[in-house]
Amino acid sequence: MENSGHQLRCTGCGRVSEQRELKADFRCPDCGDLYEVVYPSWSAGFAAAEEKKPNASALRWLWKERCSSNEEADQSGVWRFRELLHILRDEKNIVSLREGNTPLYSLRRTARSTGIAKLYAKHQGMNPTGSFKDTGMTAALSVAYELGYEWVACASTGNTSAAMAAYAARAGMRSLVLIPQGKIAWGKLSQAIDYGALTIQLRTDFDGCVRVLAEIVRRAPVYLLNSVNPYRLEGQKTPALEIAEALEWEVPDHVIVPGGNLANSSALGKAFLEMKHLGLTARLPKISVIQAEGANPLYRAMRENGGEALYPVEAHTRASAIRIGNPASWKKAVRVIRETGGWCEQASEAEIALAKAEIGEEGIGCEPASAVTLAGLKKLVREGKVQSQETVVLLLTGHTLKDSDYTIAYHRGDLLRPDEVGALRTEIEVTRRNAVEMDASADLVLRELERAKER
Ligand code: F0G
């Protein structure tokens, strides 16, 4: 990996730039749009010689082979795919916590209840800091390290900050976290502090934190690690490679992803398009994005104008990870939905909470933002957009322990207001299991056990 050989292409006007020309806010100087990483030796749109393209079967073999290697880069589920993310000059600059290589679980109970026989969950919550952000963070933070930065920074709804703080600490770098005060889950806040970040709670929402950080990166030499940074998306491509690999390079019919700032859907879409372009896979899955009803700017844009214009909303949802009203990567996400033939759906607070409880009942668990995927799938099935014989993968983005307050409130019965529960009352009641308190008596415990058997 001596000469990384990548370039940056603006997704708006197509301008191609070198890494050293990038502005601190990662926006194109001509049109203000976001960049994507491209590889002139093999990316679509470059007239590269056919023999320069990596060989698909050799790559499949090599990536599998690396799973039994003791090299740090090979043990990472991101860097073992490094032929598709040639973003560093020197492999020695990789900062890794052995991210990726996450499980693809089959969801047996949920398969029965949704009528989708081949239903899987790709659990990105099984990453080192408990969310999918680690795959993007190892990529972009390694670039920051290679470029010699001392400070990195992000605005976050919690998971990005946890990941950034951990990887920065690992590299011996300093990190600045801006989070909306009182609006992120405790598990995530505690991680940023634990990993030594300078953690600042601003009296605003996530979108306000993004605005403040945009000014900071112009005025101070800090490296921005929000997902406008195109290197984040290169790392976030790898779950798609893992899904394809786990299914013997047969892509699923449908991949369903939660939508917040809309980088993840963009990264997965880029990965599936690249895999097809390189002949690793034969076709594309439909990629659908699900938003919370109270934080649904993409859903509205798709419905109201086919994704031509996005109007920011004031975001409200208990799924705090996706409480985002002005998503940075919306244009990239629209392109992925269009190119793959997917949809954008929304889910209510009650639908999200019920779906989270159902995933928990499988022994898998996830944080609320991840559960929008199942809530969305149920809608897509009802609308006839997903058929029972199709293979579907839900992308679970965060670990259930990230937001245990939410889980406890749901099972105690004080998460949702009665007007929110509505028609889902019975289904919700069936999934609720509150902890029972009693005196320390075996008789009392046995009585409770009998009662439980009858339920
Ligand atoms: N799920 C979880 C658990 C998240 O933390 C996020 C985003 C998303 C889904 C949405 O992904 O933004 O790529 O569409 N969390 C960011 C953060 C914004 O700061 O941790 P997206």
Please provide a written account of the structure.
By secondary structure, this protein is an alpha/beta fold. It is 40% helix and 13% strand. The protein has helices at 56-65, 72-75, 108-114, 133-146, 159-171, 186-194, 206-219, 230-235, 238-246, 263-277, 297-305, 330-340, 349-361, 368-382, 404-412, 418-421, 425-431, 442-454, and strands at residues 7-10, 16-17, 35-38, 104-106, 118-123, 151-155, 174-180, 198-202, 222-224, 254-258, 286-292, 344-347, 391-396. Helix 4 runs parallel beside helix 5 (159-171) and helix 13 packs across helix 14. The chain binds ligand F0G. Residues 131, 133, 156-160, 227, 258-264, 321-322, 367, 369-370, 397-398 line the site of ligand F0G. The site of ligand F0G has 22 residues, from helix 5, helix 10 and helix 14.
Outline of the structure:
The chain is α/β, with parallel strands linked by helices. The protein is built from 18 helices and 13 strands.
* Number of E-state strands: 13
Low-confidence stretches: none
Gross geometry? globular
What's the helix count?
Answer: 18
Bound molecules: ligand F0G
From the alpha carbons, calculate the radius of gyration and give it in angstroms: 22 Å
Helix content range: 40-55%
Biggest sheet record: 6 strands, mixed
Termini gap: 60 Å
Strand order of the largest sheet: 4-5-13-10-11-12
